[in-house]
Amino acid sequence: MNPHFTLCSMLLLANAAAEPVRQLERLVVQDRRESGSLTAPSPESSRKELANTPGGTEVVEADRYLTGRSSTMADTFALSPGVVAQPRFGSDEARLSIRGSGIQRTFHGRGIRLMQDGVPLNLADGGFDMQAVDPLAVSHVNIWRGANALAYGASTLGGAIDYRSRTGIGSPGASLRLEAGSFGYLRSRLAGGWNDGTVDAYASVSEQFQDGFREHAEQHGQRLFGNAGWRISNGVETRAYFTAVNTESELPGSLTKAELRRNPKQADNSPFGAVRYDNRRDFQLYRVASKTTLSQGEGTTEFIAAHTYKDLDHPITPFVGVIDQLSNDTLAGIVHSREGWLFGRENHLRSGFLWSYGSTDAATFRNELGRRGTLTADADQTAVNAELFAENRHVLGGGLSLITGANYAHNRRKNDQRLGSATYHREDDGFSPKLGLLWQIHDLQVFGNWSRSHEPPSFSETNNSITANQAQTADTLEIGVRSGDQRAIRWYAAVYASKVDDEFLALNDALGTPLGTINADKTLHQGVECFFEADLLGSSWDQSPDHRLVARSAWTWGRFRFDDDDVYGDNTIAGLPPHLIRGELLWEHASGWYSGPTFEWVPEKTHVDHRNTLSADPYALLGFKFGRRIDDGLSWFVEAKNLADRTYAATTGVIADAKGADSRNFLPGDGRSIFAGLEWKW
What we know:
The protein is built from six helices and 35 strands. It is mostly beta strands. The relative contact order is 0.13. The chain has a 22-stranded antiparallel beta barrel. The longest helix has 15 residues, at about 5-15. The protein is globular and about 65 Å long.
């Protein structure tokens, strides 16, 4: 059957059959008034929404990570199972992966849809920058693992992460936050919100300095995030967003395993290394966006738009050169949600259309000891995407709901080479269906789903005019369970298995000749995600005791391997640790005091090459934090990391075959450090 016809028929049927229900309409209005905003739902509203997804979802409230240093994505997602965030050198840049997405990327993410308030931040070719978000400027972060993000137009293997901004409604008044600590780390943030009933505004401006644990790892950046909303009527609200980012980062490069053990603080001082060629990644990013929400009866419609300007200056190895890219990306879309009846049962439909267009002036110059030399490549790159998506939840009765969905995407990539002969023009169509069941038993949910993901190559994976990469696709099965708040232990656990076709990997042929990033034949991604949170003093999570002794832990297990590959057999795909376990044991008092140890444990080696001949060693880190966090007045924290001063690789590069020899693919983690912070709200 034609996938275009199937998706369009589903949209028309659900909309035509839906009838308004007065009770449901009342619930929707109440939910939105909890946050006081149609365009910016509260954390509680987000939790209710994500709880209706038959798969791995999570809401991370800012108060969870603001109890310590809040600088890297590893800080934000430390207790998020399935989300692997490994900083390259204590910085914003990180390896960010969900269920093995973008597995060989340690910078400039791919395989996940990154959003701000439901509006995609990815550039049109699929890549995104970690510096485009600020954990200090959001009230909470929504996570959809895998195809559970299909209702938001995301059909990638990794799913979606949505940073929900603070507003003048939810965060009135002003606040000042200062963080300082080891390795010359200093971060300041001034924020304020204002609201007069129909108009509100919020702005956050921050600046960060860092000398870095390693040589040649200095960073300096400024970020401004602001939004303003206008409540035009009870059912109409519009909000505008503005982002400005300036970031300058020295890159210390990778070390050999022997160099890491000898002196993890050193940079790559080899003849072609990071210091001699002054490796850096500097860019300016400016973004404007808008969202207008119309809520009427049983239906809610959102109109979204955004434009991003980015100027990248990126000197790296002499073999690549100095990358100079100027890009402009535009996005527009419409999303409609409808709650009513279908065949005599409650029915919830979310559908939409997204269009994005990106144009990049991509030039490369010779790197002459950190300075620009002659022009070696010059191209005009264009990416265009049109995405139509829908997801429907139908209540069958007895606590059981049926979820069906689909995403159709048309993607175009065009590379006009003004210098060289790598011109190409490619188009791709992808259809991603989804089928799931959600069973509510008292305060327990059991879920399962089958889905298909689809991801076209970014310009980094498009290869060349002769050998074209196909889109990466996968079929995924997932089952899991999550509990509510009516007991002293709450938990989430999910098991998934993905059969991936044409995964983007850097491979060699049978003779050992490097092929660059190409499509692997068949690969398998399998994993387990677990999180538990227990009050060891016995109070349930719907109570408010004076004291709690809370044990929290997130365990991520992933087995990513080739499937009877001609060259690699059933070898493990390099890049991610098989196990990542993070947790904390905190005493918490109702007045805001907290204290206790934290830990991170990688109990098995992490392969660096697909031949599995070189690996990073297991490690265990111990930390401690204490402080007090309150809604108004002065909050503070002190946090110590890596108390035993362990030498370890925070993450690694990914190569095809190390042939058992040591090589420059190890990125050391930070040594023993201590950080402190103050936050004053008034």
